[in-house]
Design a protein that fits this description.
Helices cover 14% and strands 46% of the residues. With 703 residues, it is mostly beta strands.
């Protein structure tokens, strides 16, 4: 009897354990799927979908015991998504594509017009739908707010213009065309006149108060797709299928000038806030900038692969955004025309976009029927610098962290403003590849080492070459300025290390010992010890005072491509051709440990001011290490080809990486190192707050 009772207890216990195990396995499988979905959504440019999946995975992780590997994986994915998300809200309600959208002058509302024949009004703060305005019986192609913010004009394919009193959701009047769709509308800044353009090739001017037609302008030889009053109201710009942009004097209604250059229809135009520049977008897939004073083309912006359908300047005029049929938005530096960023979130053509009056948000709408709100601080935070036409081998920050210098196989050096993220100037003079760069301790001089066997010195402020150091009989692979003086060390294919006085241009000392090319140099921060790495697979330590060789470190099965001393000078990190990062005791010359993970040669290595170590290589990754741990803190795989260089800004805030893909990427170090899961989840929930308030499919309890 007792034996039977014990047997039943055991069976019950086994059943409970099996049930618990099954529940655990089910939750674990769900967690893994959510994490996979998170990354998948993010890579397919669905920011909000990625964040939702990540937060759900984070919540579920608290209910199950995760292995250390899974915890690290979750943190890595959350970090990527939380700091990479740019879309703040998505307004969904239209049944078909969004053709037009505009912010109210006070920024509190967004109006959108759609192929579903409706105009919808949304509250900007949380994205709630305030009203649906019905009356059009065809697509709504154009919208424009009256300066008072209470009247909205809409134009569409039904040949009508309708005026609405927004507060009452009431139609005030209808202006009927004789023929053709209305494609564009614009109120004069004084609010007295409304201009319309459309399929019938005419521009009509209307009395905004009583709806009577004032005048018709007939010069376009095709449909008028876009028109816009200048901010001072003195000019009206128009463009259309005849490929010509016309600039009208609003006092006498005569043409001031005509801009010709597009090879396709002009679909969109926008005045810069200062009234000096007009931007135009065309079916030829380009954006052109025009000088309104002399009527000349300033430049052409190329990058879209389909017609450019919408344009808008930020309120401060520094950034121009373009929307295209290629499903993307592009941000351009209005001053120099360089592309700042691409927002690829829409799943169809982008038809309309507008900026919030304070410039904090960008709204975009398109054929996918969604209106997306973008955080401009994230969108405009330039992380990719494109200025070279070939692989970027080296980069270095100035001592004050304000300038980043990059050297390329295109034989040029670019100097970048690290705050505003734009190209300051390009230095040209070398006749071949540039392998190495180094700033003097005061930041006034930049040195460059090249395949052309020379080291050149450049005045950073003037952007001019001030001298050459000639003496190497082959390519110069590495250079390093002394941290406190005008001395510069150089090494190259001729196996010799030279120490130069950069003021007299004379060689002070020659150091010989390597049996093959000197590939890398590193100076300890006290300026007393120089390390050199070579393709002879050795590292040599030299006393700079007299050039004496102190130690030879041999533990490498491949070439030593890169070296870096820790901030306290106690550790020397070496990157090798066999994929290992080797840490050495710089004083004793003994190996401390090997950091493994890269699957190819280590081509660049650098310590941050706080002792964080970054390594890059031909496995296309950037890895961040805490030298006291064996596994990397973070693995970044955003480059599309070999990563050739890496450097931290002296203030420790930024990290730069350069690649065979010709790009330079800038990273926020604090974001890269955040491994606090709770903090990442809290940041994610705060970001989604607005989206959750309007999305009926998700509730707070889910995340």
């Amino acid at each position: 009897m007792l034996l039977g009772l014990e047997a039943r207890k055991k069976e019950k216990l086994i059943g409970v354990l099996l049930t618990e195990s099954a529940e655990y396995q089910a939750k674990l499988a769900e967690f893994k799927q959510l994490l996979e979905n998170c990354l998948s959504f993010f890579l397919s440019n669905d920011d909000l979908g990625a964040l939702l999946s990540g937060l759900k995975a984070g919540k579920l992780s608290k209910e199950i015991k995760l292995s250390e590997d899974l915890k690290h994986q979750m943190i890595a994915v959350l970090r990527k998504v939380v700091y990479g998300v740019r879309e703040t809200n998505r307004l969904q309600g239209h049944l078909l594509g969004v053709r037009s959208l505009v912010f109210s002058p006070d920024g509190r509302r967004i109006a959108s017009g759609s192929d579903d024949n409706t105009v919808r009004v949304w509250r900007t703060e949380d994205g709630r739908e305030l009203a649906v305005l019905k009356g059009h019986i065809a697509s709504v192609y154009a919208l424009c707010f009256h300066p008072d913010g209470e009247t909205l004009a809409s134009g569409g394919g039904d040949r009508s213009i309708r005026l609405w009193r927004i507060g009452e959701s009431k139609e005030i009047r209808t202006l009927q065309m004789r023929s053709g769709a209305v494609y564009s509308l614009s109120f004069h800044p004084d609010g007295k006149t409304l201009a319309s353009g459309g399929e019938d090739r005419r521009i009509r001017l209307w009395n905004a108060e009583n709806g009577r037609k004032i005048r018709t302008l007939k010069k376009h030889a095709g449909s008028v797709y876009c028109l816009r009053f200048s901010r001072d109201g003195k000019m009206l710009a128009s463009g259309g299928s005849d490929r010509i942009i016309r600039l009208w004097n609003t006092e006498n209604n005569k043409i001031i000038s005509m801009f010709k250059g597009h090879t396709g229809a002009v679909l969109t135009i926008s005045f810069s806030p200062d009234g000096k520049v007009l931007a135009s977008g065309s079916s030829d897939s380009t954006v052109k900038l025009w000088n309104l004073e002399d009527g000349k083309e300033i430049r052409t912006l190329e990058g879209h692969s389909a017609p450019v359908s919408s344009l808008a300047f930020t309120p401060d005029g520094k950034i121009l955004v373009s929307g295209s049929f290629d499903n993307s938005l592009k941000l351009w530096n209005a001053a120099d025309g360089f592309e700042i960023n691409t927002l690829p979130g829409h799943s169809g053509a982008v038809f309309g976009l507008d900026f919030h009056p304070d410039g904090a948000w960008l709204a975009s709408g398109g054929s996918d029927a969604a209106i997306r709100l973008w955080n401009m601080n994230r969108c405009a935070a330039l992380k990719i610098l494109n200025g070279h036409s070939n692989q970027v081998y080296s980069l270095v920050f100035s001592p004050d962290s304000k300038i980043l210098a990059s050297g390329s196989f295109d034989s040029s050096i670019c100097l970048w403003d690290t705050d505003k993220k734009f190209l300051l100037r390009k230095l040209e003079g070398h006749s071949s590849y540039i392998f190495s760069l180094s700033f003097s301790h005061d930041g006034k001089v930049l040195a460059s080492g090249s395949f052309d066997s020379t080291v050149r010195l450049w005045d950073v402020e003037a952007g001019k070459e001030t001298g050459r150091l000639e003496g190497h009989s082959g390519p110069v692979f590495s250079i390093a300025f002394h941290p406190q003086s005008r001395l510069l060390a150089s090494g190259g294919e001729d196996r010799i290390i030279r120490l130069w006085d950069t003021e007299t241009r004379e060689v002070i000392r020659v150091m010989k010992g390597h049996s093959n090319s000197v590939l890398s140099l590193g100076l300890r921060h006290d300026g007393k010890l120089l390390a050199s790495g070579s393709s002879d697979k050795s590292i040599r330590l030299w006393r700079l005072e007299d050039g004496k060789q102190m130690k030879v470190l041999r533990s490498h099965s491949g070439s030593v491509f890169c070296l870096s001393f820790s901030p306290d000078g106690k550790i020397l990190a070496a990157g090798t051709g066999d994929g290992a990062v080797i840490l050495w005791d710089a004083q004793k010359g003994k190996e401390i440990k090997i950091l493994k993970g890269h699957t190819g040669s280590i081509l660049g290595i650098c310590f941050s001011p706080e002792g964080l170590l970054a390594s890059v290589g031909d496995d296309c990754t950037v890895r961040l290490w805490n030298v006291n741990e064996d596994k990397p803190l973070n693995i970044i795989g955003d480059h599309s080809d070999y990563v050739l260089g890496v450097h931290f800004s002296p203030d420790g805030k930024l990290m730069g990486s350069s690649s065979f893909d010709s790009s330079i990427r800038l990273w926020n170090v604090a974001e890269l190192c955040n491994s606090d899961a709770e903090d990442l989840l809290a940041r994610g929930r705060e970001w989604l707050r607005k989206y959750l308030s309007t999305n009926p499919n998700v509730i707070d309890e889910d995340i």
